[in-house]
């Protein structure tokens, strides 16, 4: 299926003028993104794009959490990365199927979503005694928890700079490319040196005429700082970065993952997907992990608090996916409507011994019949004695002479 292309070239321009304007924009982006030059080590890819540290530094993306909203026409992604390492700055490259609008995301959104999808607490009774219950001793029991178009227009320049600017602590550029090697070369010329083989990872996006958002990250964009280490200490990217929001036209619900093939360490991807119905993956993407469903249902919009979420995209499917072998990822995540909108909520059980009036039921069941038998024998013996006494009354007492 195809994806809609957003944006247009300004009316009245000739093709040559348009190219000249784009090349001028490229020079401006170059001035923004190259300051004193970057010597860059290979990228640490993340699920939704690629992260490139600078200054011979290291940067590891340990966890990626994204909220995705799709109403059949427009897709929106808010992404938050948790990073560690000693990089003072880095670049993040994100492929998108059409022209994207870039904004800062709501930093509190994921806290609210975590509360929506957290397991409910329930009590579950068990019959037979366990460790910690009389007559046993020891530890207690534990609770349980469960294509768009093909190719580029003839004569188009290999790399176009579509837009550039600043957004809060971020600097960004939006790019389009008709050749994966040209895109990799352009990124390298502008301080974003890709690791070996990145051109091959980019090729499917180039062939589908996708675009790219390149964002420069600095410690000002990080949620945690190094100021506590003492004055003069070099600030580095660390902790949870401020979330970014991308909005673009798409007629399919897709989450880019191919660039994660270049990651050198395992990662965890958490997805909150808002769509008209419950969703499921079209196919497995590889990566060595298995997707775990966390929640499925229509939460109260007030509890979600994601302004602008289309009402038609009110069904939330939350999932987590470990990626211990990112090099084996073969495709992007693409989702379709599940067979049903059956609701799912995880449950955390607290196991308790079944009692009645404070007395364990197993004691009543096991020893109750014995007690009843004992009481019955006593009653039977007493009645038998009474009948015998009635049949053979004792002789009257002897009178004195």
**Secondary-structure element order, N to C:** HEEEEEEHEEEHHEEEEEEEHEEEEEEH
| Quaternary organisation | single chain
The tally of domains stands at 2
Q: What's the gyration radius in Å?
A: 34 Å
Protein name: DUF2330 domain-containing protein
Keywords: Membrane, Transmembrane, Transmembrane helix
Pfam families: DUF2330 (PF10092)
InterPro entries: DUF2330
Give an overview in words:
With 401 residues, this protein is of the alpha+beta class. It folds into 2 domains: 15-353, no CATH class; 356-389. 21% of the residues lie in helices and 33% in strands. It has 6 helices and 22 strands. It has helices at 15-33, 109-117, 180-189, 198-207, 301-304, 361-391; strands at residues 44-46, 49-53, 59-70, 74-85, 90-96, 100-104, 120-126, 159-167, 170-177, 211-217, 239-240, 244-249, 253-255, 267-275, 279-281, 292-297, 315-323, 333-337, 344-345, 347-353, 355-356, 359-360. The strands form 5 sheets. Strands 3, 4, 6, 11, 12, 14, 16, 17 and 19 form a 9-stranded mixed beta sheet that branches. A 6-stranded antiparallel beta sheet has the order 1-2-5-10-9-8, with helices on one face. Strands 13-18-15 form a 3-stranded antiparallel beta sheet, with no helix packed on it. A hairpin with a 3-residue loop joins strand 3 (59-70) and strand 4. The protein is elongated and about 145 Å long. It starts with 14 loop residues before the first helix and ends in a 10-residue tail after the last helix.
């Amino acid at each position: 299926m195809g994806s809609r292309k957003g944006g247009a070239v300004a009316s009245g321009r000739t093709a040559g003028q348009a190219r000249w304007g784009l090349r001028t924009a490229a020079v401006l982006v170059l001035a923004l993104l190259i300051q004193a030059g970057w010597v860059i080590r290979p990228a640490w890819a993340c699920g939704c794009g690629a992260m490139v540290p600078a200054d011979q530094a290291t940067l590891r993306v340990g966890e990626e959490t994204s909220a995705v909203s799709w109403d059949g026409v427009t897709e929106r992604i808010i992404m938050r990365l948790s990073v560690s390492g000693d990089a003072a700055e880095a670049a993040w490259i994100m492929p998108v199927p059409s022209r994207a609008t870039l904004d800062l995301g709501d930093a509190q959104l994921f806290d609210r979503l975590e509360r929506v999808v957290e397991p409910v607490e329930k009590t579950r009774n068990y019959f037979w005694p366990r460790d910690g219950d009389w007559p046993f001793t020891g530890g207690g029991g534990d609770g349980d928890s469960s294509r768009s178009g093909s190719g580029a227009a003839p004569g188009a320049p290999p790399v176009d700079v579509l837009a550039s600017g600043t957004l809060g602590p971020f600097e960004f550029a939006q790019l389009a490319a008709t050749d994966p090697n040209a895109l990799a070369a352009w990124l390298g010329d502008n301080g974003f040196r890709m690791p070996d083989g990145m051109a091959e990872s980019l090729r499917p996006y180039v062939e589908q005429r996708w675009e790219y958002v390149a964002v420069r990250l600095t410690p000002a964009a990080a949620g945690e700082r190094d100021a506590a280490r003492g004055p003069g200490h070099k600030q580095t990217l660390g902790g949870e970065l401020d979330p970014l929001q991308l909005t673009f036209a798409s007629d399919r619900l897709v989450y880019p993952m191919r660039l994660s093939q270049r990651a050198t360490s395992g990662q965890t991807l958490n997805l909150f997907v808002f769509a008209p119905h419950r969703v499921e993956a079209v196919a497995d993407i590889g990566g060595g992990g298995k997707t775990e469903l966390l929640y499925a249902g229509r939460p109260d919009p007030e509890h979600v608090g994601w302004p602008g979420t289309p009402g038609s995209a009110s069904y939330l499917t939350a999932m987590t996916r470990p990626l211990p072998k990112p090099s084996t990822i073969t495709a992007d995540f693409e989702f379709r409507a599940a067979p049903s909108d059956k609701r799912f909520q995880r449950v955390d059980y607290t196991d308790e011994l079944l009692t009645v009036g404070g007395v364990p039921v197993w004691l009543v069941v096991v020893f109750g019949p014995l007690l009843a038998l004992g009481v019955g024998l006593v009653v039977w013996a007493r009645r038998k004695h009474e009948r015998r006494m009635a049949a053979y009354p004792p002789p009257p007492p002897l009178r004195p002479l």
